[in-house]
Amino acid sequence: MTGRVFDASLYRHDRVEPSYWEATVERPAAPRLAGDETAEVAIVGAGFTGLSCALHLARDHGIEAVVLDAGAPGWGASGRNGGLVCIPPAKASIPQMIRRWGREETAGFYRWAIAGCDMARDLPAAEGFDVRAQGDGNLEVADHPARLAGLVENARQLNDLVGVPVRILDRAGFAAIGHGGTEQFGGVHIGAGFALHPLAYALGLLRAARRRGARIYGDSPVVRWEREGGGHRLVTAGGASVRVRHVVVATNGWTPDSLHPAFDARMLPAISNILVTRPLTAGELAAESWHTETGVVNARSLLFYYRLLPDRRLLFGARGDTAGSPDAAARTQAWMERRLGELFPSWAGIEVEYRWRGLVAMSRKLTPSIGSLDDDPGVHYALGYHAAGVAAAPMAGRTLADRIALGDAAPAVPAVLRGLPPRFAVSALRRLALAGAYLWYGAGDRWQELRHRATG
Ligand SMILES: Cc1cc2nc3c(=O)[nH]c(=O)nc-3n(C[C@H](O)[C@H](O)[C@H](O)COP(=O)(O)OP(=O)(O)OC[C@H]3O[C@@H](n4cnc5c(N)ncnc54)[C@H](O)[C@@H]3O)c2cc1C
Hints:
With 456 residues, the protein is α/β, with parallel strands linked by helices. It has a domain at 8-82 and 199-268 and 365-432: 3-Layer(bba) Sandwich (FAD/NAD(P)-binding domain). The chain has 11 helices and 20 strands. It has helices spanning 20-23, 48-61, 94-101, 103-127, 148-162, 171-177, 198-211, 282-287, 326-343, 389-406, 430-455, and strands at residues 36-38, 41-44, 66-68, 84-85, 138-141, 166-169, 187-190, 194-195, 215-217, 222-228, 231-236, 241-244, 246-249, 267-277, 295-298, 304-308, 314-319, 352-363, 369-373, 376-383. Helix 4 (103-127) crosses helix 10 (389-406). 52% of the residues are buried. Bound molecules: flavin-adenine dinucleotide (FAD). The site of flavin-adenine dinucleotide has 47 residues, from helix 2, strand 14, strand 18 and helix 10.
């Protein structure tokens, strides 16, 4: 399967990414698809979207799906993200969404996203597995005094739209409940979501789906998609296949351009990187006024996200380079280590014990895309969570399960989510588009830094 946007090293399905998450869970075996199977539904991609779809199909509708992943289940972003259960899964602002889809549909989208946050707590409890929940809501921090007003405005719009509780914090208020450091000028607390162990969430969904009859296979990349009568036949690299009536595309940032023509050049994958330090001592945390287990996102255009893990390590994430080669990754990670020390000076040079990266999926629509193809209603998709899929992707899997099982009787999908995004005009130039966007946003961030140095 072709259509890779980045260096081949980001597409190695033969091994899992050596992350802190992989080091702290036990994986169940996931055999390769062998022989030819039939089912009502096949799901391509065993991340949050695909596994949740399989669980909800089986549990709520008695439909036993076959799930295929090119790597191990949870191999993609679902097993390697920051674990911040947060909203919104979009790059469009609330005013932009209201202009495009109206206030009711925008509120419906936010309610759907908040339900995804609630599901991340309630579903593991109902299914009897532990996602190692931490914190309460999410913090957004102004990395520069001029950015606080924007954060406050967004928080007020969110509260006004759907009543999410928000707290406005000045620098001292933020230091009292969050942290200090050189890029903390106040912020907001958003009362939705929390933080969790993402791979524990993905594998919990897997076990629950299997218990109810879903058949989940790893090491089974779909390399050919054939129409057969009124149905579909998906052929994997090993030659084994599945015949089904419905196919769900749940491949997000790893959507290959040659899987099905309807999905070519719809997604703009971007690299996100994570570092995890050694455990910090109580004294080291106190030196940066660190008080919280709640996830933090800063307001830079090319943002940092971070959180304290249960064993007191700092997880520190940032958007990556636009090449994807191991050398470029090493340069980005070295830059992140330097910036971590600039944000929290007493931690400069702290030992980093884990480094990894993965792909998020952006799109020209700036909001996720959920639906079925107009000319082939047996093909369903949920993609494009704009780097915020921990709450949204499992929710999207459930939304698709309801649509497949109930058709028009399923709960309506908010208009903000419906339909595929426009394609990128020249697929091969997507990496350049990303580089251009990074230059633009990076220049904005640097301009703020220079202004800050000049004025403060
Ligand atoms: C480093 C990083 C940090 C992040 N941090 C956060 C965060 O803190 N909070 C948040 O909300 N979101 C975060 N995200 C985003 C979030 O992880 C994703 O939005 C979410 O996991 C998407 O889930 P998914 O199931 O749709 O896709 P994925 O989990 O990416 O799964 C897609 C799967 O499709 C499979 N696949 C592709 N092609 C084929 C094929 N031909 N045949 C079979 N299988 C195929 C892949 O192997 C892959 O496993 C982060 C992402 C990354 C990479």
